[in-house]
Amino acid sequence: MSIVVYSIKGGVGKTTLSVQLAQMLKYTYVTNDSHSSAHNLMPEEKGFLVSKEDYDEIPFDKNIVYDFGGFKDSRINDIIKQSKVIVIPTLTSIVDVQATLATIKDVIKLNTNILIVINRTRSNNKAIELKEYLSEEVSNINHNINSKIVFVRDSSVLEDSLFDCEYIEDKAGTNRFKRHIYRNAIEDMKLLNKSLEL
């Protein structure tokens, strides 16, 4: 399967999630964001930039995680149509939530398999309230959306993973102390992976 991680809003953690998913699933990472350097940090032949300057169309293939930047790009429409699931990250601020709902309205015209990730959560109560709110709003947008909502806890370990683009569980290895420190991030990534099966 191929996965799209997308939001019209920047700064919601698309690249961090995309890289982790690509490394966890052993998929290729593809981004259209020329301001990102993640494609250069991926293992050889596993990270690609498809900038507007170099590509009129973005090639679709299986076993790819597409990381689409926080801007409009008409080239992504065919990829969204063909991908198995569209992962839409959000933070808990009202600006991010409004951008998430706008993103969903755009995406459902092309693909109704949506996984919303409430990213960098700190307050369990606030995240649960937001999940309930988003569930209701998504249902109001379209009753036929096949969607799930999951949480990814705030973690400096995940943010730091962009420096080497290594999957968090591989980074922890068999070191018991590291596995203890990374345990929340590892659990959240495994749950995210499981939730891709809509």
Q: Concise description?
A:
By secondary structure, the chain is an alpha/beta fold. The protein has helices at 14-25, 38-41, 77-82, 94-107, 124-141, 156-160, 168-172, 176-181, 183-195; strands spanning 3-6, 28-31, 47-49, 64-68, 85-90, 113-121, 146-153.
Word description of this protein:
- The chain has 198 residues and is an alpha/beta fold.
- It has a single domain (3-195), classed as Rossmann fold, CATH 3.40.50.300.
- It is 42% helix and 20% strand.
- It has nine helices and seven strands; from the N terminus they run E-H-E-H-E-E-H-E-H-E-H-E-H-H-H-H.
- Strands 3-2-4-1-5-6-7 form a seven-stranded parallel sheet, with helices on both faces.
- Helix 4 packs parallel to helix 5 (124-141).
- The longest helix has 18 residues, at 124-141.
- The radius of gyration is 16 Å and the shape is globular.
- The two termini are 12 Å apart.
